[in-house]
Design goal:
Rossmann fold, 4-stranded parallel sheet, binds 6-O-phosphono-beta-D-fructofuranose, 7-stranded mixed sheet, 319 residues, alpha/beta
Length: 319
């Protein structure tokens, strides 16, 4: 193993830069040449590749986004796109590839591996929706962003004696809503993993109002229902003025938390070590306090488990 490549792919996540930095510096420490691939698989197909040195990753550990840039490439999913990528890998003499991203990015790594390319994945997505790992880079920063937003929204919600539906990201996973809801003291949390009843949400609002509560935060995971329709329904059923805040891409930006930087640094370094050990077709993850690695296939087929206990706790704490 002499020359490795690193790319970030799919939705960006705070901490991707810290992971890239760790890959580049660990690689150089071990005498490897490290090639930075711009804009994920799109850049791989286009040959958007340059050698990185210690300074290329200076001053990025604290920055959100991804210096390597990212993309969601449809072309790479085709036979033609994959062939182009393989050709570029050959031309640039890349012996091993490190892919930082979510499950779509890991599927790409798996396809390359089937064609003989050594590839290792690092989980980077704010959604925390990968079943094989307790944690994916970016999640902690994202929930802290949501918790900050909830605090601001709560101020104005209290002043006006309103309810506010805060819609958060997560694709099909309720983790952002669940954990930000727990940390932010939300009154109701609506996630795809659990049945939802608007009557229950309204009952809670009425009970809260009857004991003098001046605000209510309803945390709603995206892609479930229309927030504005729900606000209208709540107003109709309770008479409580209800506003909607869709947080959107603000959740994907910002300086990564110390936790994200630490996990990203550990995972970045471990992924290089795996390549040096001759391993391939694996992804790194976090189990408890330990950085682990498993087969990409096994990782992709591990179902994400929703933490029902935490969900029940949020219900108890918001009575
Ligand atoms: O996977 C990360 C994520 O931010 C999801 O939470 C969200 O559904 C999606 O990406 C948004 O994607 P895009 O930035 O392409 O609109």
């Amino acid at each position: 193993m002499k020359r490795i490549g690193v790319l970030t792919s799919g939705g960006d996540a705070p901490g991707m830069n810290a992971a890239t930095r760790a890959v580049v510096r660990t690689g150089i420490y071990h005498g490897l040449k490290v090639m930075g691939i711009g804009q994920g698989y799109k850049g791989l197909i286009e040959g958007n590749i340059s050698e990185m040195n210690l300074s290329s990753v200076a001053d990025i550990i604290h920055r959100g986004g991804t210096k390597l840039r990212t993309a969601r490439s449809e072309e790479f999913k085709t036979e033609v796109g994959l062939k182009k990528a393989l050709n570029v890998i050959k031309v640039f003499g890349i012996d091993g590839l490190i892919v930082i991203g979510g499950d779509g990015s890991f599927k790409g790594a798996k396809e390359l591996n089937k064609k003989g390319i050594k590839a290792i994945g690092i989980p980077g997505t704010i959604d925390n929706d990968l079943g094989y790992t307790d944690y994916s880079i970016g999640f902690d920063t994202a929930i802290n962003t949501v918790v900050d937003a909830i605090s601001n929204i709560r101020d104005t919600t209290t002043s006006h004696g309103r309810a506010n539906i805060v819609e958060v990201m997560g694709r099909n996973c309720g983790d952002i809503a669940l954990y930000a809801g727990l940390a932010g003291g939300a009154e109701s949390i609506i996630v795809p993993e659990e049945d939802f009843s608007s009557d229950e949400v309204c009952k809670k609002l009425i009970q809260g109002r009857n004991r003098g509560k001046l605000h209510s935060i309803i945390l709603l995971a995206e892609n479930m229902l229309n927030s504005y329709d729900l606000a209208k329904e709540i107003e109709y059923k309770t008479g409580i003025s209800t506003r909607v805040t869709i947080l959107g891409h603000i959740q994907r930006g910002g300086s990564p938390t110390a936790f994200d930087r630490i996990i990203a640094s550990k995972m970045g370094a471990r992924s290089v070590e795996l390549l040096l050990e001759g391993k391939s077709s694996r992804v790194v993850g976090l189990k408890g306090n330990k950085i682990i690695d498993i087969e990409i296939d096994e990782a992709l087929s591990t179902e994400k488990k929703f933490d029902k206990e935490v969900y029940e706790l949020t219900k108890i704490l918001s009575i």
